[in-house]
Amino acid sequence: MTINTSVPTNLRTPGGYHEFKFDAAGQQLVPFDRRVVILAEKSSAGTATADTPVQIFDETDGDAKFGKSSLGALMVRQALAQAKLSAVGSPEIWGCPVAENGAGTAAVYTITITGPATASSDLVLSIAGRVISVGVTIDDAQNTIAAALEKELDRLAAILPVTASVAANVVTLTFPTKGVNGNDVDRTTIRTPAGVTIAHAATVAGVGATAITNALAALYDRDYHGIAMANHATGDAAVILADAAFTWGFGQKNFKFYAMGERGSLGTAQTLEASYNDYRVLITSCEAVGSLPGELAVAQMVAWFAREAPNANLDNERLAIYPPPPASAYTAAEVESALASGLIPLVPDGPFVKIVRLVTSQITVSSVPFEPLRDAAYPRTAAYMAKQIDAGFLTGFKQEVLSDSPEDDVLQRVRDMVIEKHRAAQTARYIRDVDAFLDQIQVEIAAAPAGRLVVSDPFRVAGPLHQGVFVHTMYQ
Question: Which of 328, 315, 320, 329 is nearest to 353 (CA)?
Answer without folding.
Answer: 320
